[in-house]
């Protein structure tokens, strides 16, 4: 893991005053500080003002070049370094600047020879030149040479041990070369803190080291310290937000990204903000941010992923047009995303959209792809597939799916699924009442207070009973159904028919059971039927009979 790939570029500026008036020097320092703070728009304006005020300053042009390198505008950086070198060929910084431009243009051999010539003229004793050569090797992208950079920085620090910028850059180089061993890098950072305890850029670097080993507590403390010392140091909020996202503390991350965007309101910063909002399930707010960035022409594959999900999650009215829009965005995501960036959740989400649009067969294909990509999601996807088959009353497929899930992990099959499995066996073209009964027992084991399972156990008992030699298999289940009913259940008009069904069966049982004939209990059950439905013909017949009088 390269902890400081991003951080390296933030520290290529010197806070030293060489030439010019005190006012100009302070402005140069301000420009470099704003760059280090990642307040790039303000920094650019400061540098432009500096160039206008003093167009012959080598330092102004050199550090403006460094600014452009920091924000990734290489051509402009090279142009500025070339200009700095042409302003005063005898100036020691100008000499380094000339060859820095050559190095970044890709002619590394010529540039390296030029560095040696310039350093030889000062007998390798000029700390500033050694520093800037090391800086070149450390910050030159594909032409980077960290070994040479470290060597030159150590030579510079041997002459000027208190150059905090060089110390920080040396620490960064060591860290980049040995990302799994931060000890030596921290030693260089601690030297800076000994000189300047308020060096927030170093405090943030130490926080990132703690972050890399997943020590949230210490990293969080260091970020908070940096934010308190310098509330305008934007990187502290950025990396602090990233820390919170790493640990899924998304609401914290949202607030930190908001603070960052107050200082550096770039499109990328707003993209990171909406990413945190998405993680915090702030789907409405995420959509608003995505729309704002898209209106400016900024988009990427992740935003397409987020947008499709947000459209579904915010569609509380189940508007088919919104689901269709989500599918179109999702189509675009799958067309543009690199295959290795597509994950199981992407297929799952696509399945959800297709299911919402009643494209069930296509949804099942996506759910199956999800399972193939991430077997840990097998149980969840089989549940979704089962729901589709239940909705379509495709009983053989319901049975097949829940059996597959039970075989995969029986502990993952819930009571609702076992209940649906029981009904599928019951209503299947070729019913299997024994398997329905087995499934209902599993429902009762998981949810003993769910009265529907007892009702259906009674119905299954009726099917399993021998009509020529009745064993009254449904009797205990219908009794349990009535016993489990709450007052609210009894008052529920939708359950009235079930109560009548159970009571009629029990009334019949206590009249016709040879072993347990009980007329008082028969009357009790038939009375319940008559109360629920005064016009019930069977209840009238019972009470008109000799037994009922």
Task: Give a concise summary.
With 549 residues, the protein is mainly alpha-helical. It has helices spanning 5-8, 22-36, 40-53, 58-70, 74-87, 92-104, 108-121, 127-138, 146-159, 164-177, 183-195, 200-212, 216-229, 234-246, 250-263, 267-279, 283-295, 301-313, 320-336, 344-356, 360-373, 378-391, 395-409, 415-427, 433-446, 451-464, 475-484, 487-491, 496-512, 519-532, 537-544. It is built from 31 helices and no strands.
Describe this structure in words.
Among the domains are: 1-196, Tetratricopeptide repeat domain (Serine Threonine Protein Phosphatase 5, Tetratricopeptide repeat, Alpha Horseshoe), CATH 1.25.40.10; 343-413, Tetratricopeptide repeat domain (Serine Threonine Protein Phosphatase 5, Tetratricopeptide repeat); 417-468, no CATH class; 485-549, no CATH class. The protein has helices at 5-8, 22-36, 40-53, 58-70, 74-87, 92-104, 108-121, 127-138, 146-159, 164-177, 183-195, 200-212, 216-229, 234-246, 250-263, 267-279, 283-295, 301-313, 320-336, 344-356, 360-373, 378-391, 395-409, 415-427, 433-446, 451-464, 475-484, 487-491, 496-512, 519-532, 537-544. Helix content is 73%, strand content 0%. It has 31 helices and no strands. The chain is rod-shaped. The protein has 549 residues and is mainly α. The protein starts with a helix and ends in a 5-residue tail after the last helix.
């Amino acid at each position: 893991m390269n902890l400081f790939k991003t951080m390296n570029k933030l520290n290529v500026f010197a806070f030293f005053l060489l030439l010019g008036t005190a006012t100009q020097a302070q402005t140069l320092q301000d420009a470099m500080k704003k760059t280090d703070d990642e307040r790039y728009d303000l920094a650019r304006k400061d540098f432009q003002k500096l160039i206008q005020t003093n167009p012959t300053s080598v330092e102004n042009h050199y550090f403006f070049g460094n600014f452009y390198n920091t924000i990734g505008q290489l051509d402009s950086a090279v142009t500025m370094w070339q200009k700095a070198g042409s302003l005063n060929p005898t100036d020691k910084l100008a000499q380094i600047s000339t060859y820095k431009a050559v190095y970044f243009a890709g002619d590394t051999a010529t540039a390296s020879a030029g560095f040696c010539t310039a350093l030889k003229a000062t007998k390798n004793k000029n700390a500033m030149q050694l520093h800037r050569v090391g800086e070149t090797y450390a910050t030159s992208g594909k032409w980077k040479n960290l070994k040479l950079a470290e060597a030159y920085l150590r030579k510079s620090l041997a002459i000027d041990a208190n150059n905090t910028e060089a110390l920080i850059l040396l620490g960064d180089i060591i860290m980049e070369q040995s990302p799994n061993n931060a000890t030596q890098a921290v030693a260089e950072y601690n030297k800076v803190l000994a000189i300047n305890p308020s060096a927030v850029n170093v405090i943030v670097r130490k926080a990132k080291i703690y972050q890399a080993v997943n020590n949230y507590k210490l990293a969080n403390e260091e970020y908070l310290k940096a934010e308190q010392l310098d509330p305008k140091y934007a990187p502290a909020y950025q990396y602090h937000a990233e820390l919170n996202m790493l640990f899924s503390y998304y609401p914290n991350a949202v607030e930190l990204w908001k603070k960052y965007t107050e200082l550096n309101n770039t499109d990328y910063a707003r993209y990171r903000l909406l990413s945190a909002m998405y993680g915090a399930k702030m789907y409405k707010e995420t959509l608003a941010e995505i729309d704002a960035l898209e209106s400016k022409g900024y988009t990427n594959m992740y935003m397409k992923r987020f947008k499709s999900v947000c459209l579904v999650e915010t569609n509380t009215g189940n508007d088919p047009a919104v689901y269709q829009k989500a599918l179109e965005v999702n189509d675009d995501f799958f067309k543009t995303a690199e295959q290795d960036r597509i994950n199981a959740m992407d297929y799952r989400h696509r399945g959800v959209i297709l299911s919402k649009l009643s494209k069930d067969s296509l949804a099942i294909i996506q759910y199956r792809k999800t399972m193939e990509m991430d077997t840990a999601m097998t149980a969840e996807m089989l549940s979704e597939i089962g729901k589709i088959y239940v909705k379509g009353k495709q009983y053989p497929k319901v049975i097949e799916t829940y059996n597959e899930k039970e075989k995969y992990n029986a502990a993952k099959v819930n009571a609702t699924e076992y209940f649906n499995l029981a009904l599928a066996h019951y209503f299947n073209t070729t019913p299997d009442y024994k398997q329905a009964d087995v499934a209902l027992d599993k429902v009762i084991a998981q949810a003993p207070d769910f009265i529907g399972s007892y009702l259906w156990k009674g119905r299954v008992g009726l099917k399993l009973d021998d009509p020529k030699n009745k064993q009254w298999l449904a009797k205990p289940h219908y009794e349990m159904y009535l016993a489990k009913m709450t007052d609210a259940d009894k008052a529920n008009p939708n359950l009235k028919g079930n109560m009548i069904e159970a009571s009629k069966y029990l009334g019949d049982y206590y009249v016709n059971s040879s072993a347990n004939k009980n007329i008082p209990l028969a009357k009790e059950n038939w009375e319940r039927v008559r109360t629920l439905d005064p016009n019930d013909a069977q209840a009238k017949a019972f009470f008109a009979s000799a037994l009922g009088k």
